[in-house]
Amino acid sequence: MVIDIEEFKKIELRVGEIVEVKDHPNADKLYVLTVDFGNEKRQIVAGIREYYSKEDLLGKKIVVVTNLKPRNIRGVESQGMLLAAEKEGKLSLIIPDPKKEIDKGASVY
Fold first, then answer.
1. pLDDT per residue as tens digits for the range 83-109
2. pTM, two decimal places
3. From 42's CA, which of 5, 15, 22, 24 has a CA 20 to 30 Å away?
4. From the UniProt record, which GO molecular function terms apply (predicted)?
């Protein structure tokens, strides 16, 4: 599907910092993350447990779609979606350049 730039502009992407990581109580492949955007914190459910340890995630800055409707995932509300790339069983989070000092809450273009 091809969308025009006006449709793409509707997607809000922001940088957030993972400040808490918990195992999902009802799913072995999911984490429940608390992500800090500077002016607010949100809970995000993500299927990345088999790719990242809790220690690897804590303090990591990630890119999140922040204007999705909240969704209940296996009994836990998710208030956004993190971005990741996957190929041939490998997964990588989409993160800001660590050499640049991008503040949490920054918009992504």
1. 999 999 999 999 999 899 899 999 998
2. 0.93
3. 5
4. ATP binding; methionine-tRNA ligase activity; tRNA binding
